Amino acid sequence: MPKLKTHRGAAKRFKKAGSGKFKRSQSHLRHILTKKSSKRKRHLREGLTVHASDHAAIQKMLPYS
């Protein structure tokens, strides 16, 4: 069997947590930050886990994670 390739875009966006779930960061924190409140920007820094319905697709893109 040939080796499977990792989806490089997904590899930069998702990391595997110790529990087996995938961690992700939130969007809307790259530009146009002056109109966003400090509280909103602070809460956007927190990471989240990927929803269970997307887990199989990410697992397929990251076969060796």
Shape descriptor reads elongated
Structural class: alpha+beta
Instruction: Give the total of beta strands.
Output: 3
Helix content: 25-40%
Separation of the first and last Cα atoms: 19 Å
Total helix count? 3
**What portion of residues belong to β-strands?**
5-15%
SSE string, helix = H, strand = E? Answer: HEEHEH
What Rg, in angstroms, do the CA atoms define? 15 Å
Biggest β-sheet strands, sense, barrel: 3 strands, antiparallel
- Uncertain segments are none
Q: Overall mean pLDDT score?
A: 97
How are strands sequenced across the largest beta sheet?
A: 1-2-3
Helix and strand arrangement:
Layout: H1 8-13, E1 15-16, E2 22-24, H2 38-44, E3 48-49, H3 55-61
Antiparallel strand pairs: 1-2, 2-3
Description:
It contains 3 helices and 3 strands. The protein is α+β, with helices and mostly antiparallel strands. It has a 3-stranded antiparallel beta sheet with strand order 1-2-3. It is elongated. The two termini are 19 Å apart. The model has no long low-confidence stretch (mean pLDDT 97).
Put the structure in a nutshell:
The protein has 65 residues and is an alpha+beta fold.
Keyword list:
single chain, 65 residues, alpha+beta, three-stranded antiparallel beta sheet, elongated
